[in-house]
Design brief:
CATH superfamily of the largest domain: Vaccinia Virus protein VP39
Largest sheet: 7 strands, mixed
Shape: elongated
Order of helices and strands: HEHEHEEHEHEEHEEEEEEHEEEEEEEEHE
Radius of gyration: 23 Å
Strand content: 25-35%
Number of helices: 8
CATH class of the largest domain: Alpha Beta
Number of domains: 2
Number of strands: 22
Helix content: 10-25%
Structural class: alpha+beta
Length: 334
């Protein structure tokens, strides 16, 4: 889902030079188990175990070809690179967490998991592009303690060290960031209409403005009036949400047919669907909806059906997210 974050990025920005790794690993606070979250071919693991011969280094990497490259050059029994998706996998215990390039919902999920650790640890953050440091500075349970000058050109020229604090995480200003990696549904009041968006995949722009992945729209967080868990929604809405994620569908109305993406699922003032063509169709005028040869909805029998299968990745994500669903709808202040 998040492979698009690598698009149009110079491949050199995904790696840390040996000179910079040496500067980081030689810092007096960098001791103990090193954990690289998004480790690529594991260069930081090998470098760390070379400079600290008795310390362990663990990396998490999604791309299997990078793991294979790591295996070819691995020289230390203390360095291990684990196949995992940072969006869902367990975060290993460590003393130093190396954050280089995580962004958006993946970063939000990592920070939530790390904030639960009772053991003190250090975060090393390198901002190659984007707003990694600004995002970290929103968290009250970590504080900046030092900076390490880097030789390679970066969005911010220093690696920044953060230390975890023995305080409870303050969620009062973090709600959208804590929802971005979870499967909640946002009831948005915008332009005189209330429509459903999804928190999963939501990314921060600036201030309290966010981009949704489904549908691809920009919202102000103040316009989110209700947050629904999956269990709060009826089967018809869940079916429409699934169709919106699935791509183009065929929609037959009393007047014509459409081949388009479902964008907004409008709840009020009239239950309607806004399509990728920009047109809005009232639900009462829809006779049938098909996805390929599969009929999802027929007005004549008032019947609807879920798509017969979803991708293996979606199933795994959904299973993981189900564990975190709220049992009640959260009402937000207007």
């Amino acid at each position: 889902m998040y492979s698009e974050v690598y698009q149009d990025l110079d491949p050199r920005a995904l790696y840390t030079s040996c000179e910079d790794l040496s500067r980081i690993c030689s810092h007096p606070l960098i001791r103990g188990t090193w954990v690289d979250l998004g480790a690529g071919e594991g260069e930081s693991l090998l470098h760390y175990t070379k400079m600290h011969e008795h310390e362990k280094a663990i990396g998490i990497e999604l791309a299997l070809d990078r793991i294979e490259e790591f295996k070819k050059k691995k020289k230390s029994a203390l360095a291990s690179l684990i196949h995992g998706d940072l969006f869902t996998c367990e975060i290993p215990d460590g003393d130093i967490y190396f954050l280089y390039f995580p962004t958006g919902p993946v970063l939000d999920r990592i920070l939530t998991e790390l904030s639960k650790r009772e053991k003190s640890f250090t975060i090393v953050a390198i901002e190659s592009h984007g707003d990694l440091l600004a995002r970290l500075d929103l968290e009250n349970w970590i504080e900046r303690i030092d900076e390490i000058p880097l030789s390679s050109m970066r969005h911010y020229q220093n690696a920044v060290l953060y230390k975890s604090l023995p305080v409870e995480r303050d969620l009062s200003q973090l709600e959208p960031w804590t929802l971005s990696y979870q499967g909640f549904h946002l009831e948005v009041n915008q332009d005189g209409k209330r429509w459903l968006g999804e928190s999963l995949g939501m990314t921060h722009l600036e201030g309290m403005q966010f981009n949704l992945l489904h549908p691809p729209r920009t919202i102000q967080w103040k316009d989110v009036k209700v947050i629904h868990a999956e269990s709060d929604l009826g089967p018809l809405l869940r079916m429409l949400i699934e169709l919106r994620r699935s791509g183009e569908v065929d929609i037959l109305t009393v007047n014509r047919s459409y081949v388009a993406l479902i964008r907004k699922i409008i709840l009020w003032p009239v239950f309607s669907l806004e399509l990728s063509s920009g047109e809005t169709i009232e639900w009462s005028g829809i006779k049938a909806i098909q996805k390929g040869l599969f009929t999802c909805y027929e007005s004549s029998s008032s019947s609807f059906s879920f798509l017969p299968a979803v991708s293996e990745r979606s199933q795994k994500v959904e299973e993981k997210l189900t564990l975190t669903y709220r049992t009640k709808t959260t009402q937000l202040n207007s």
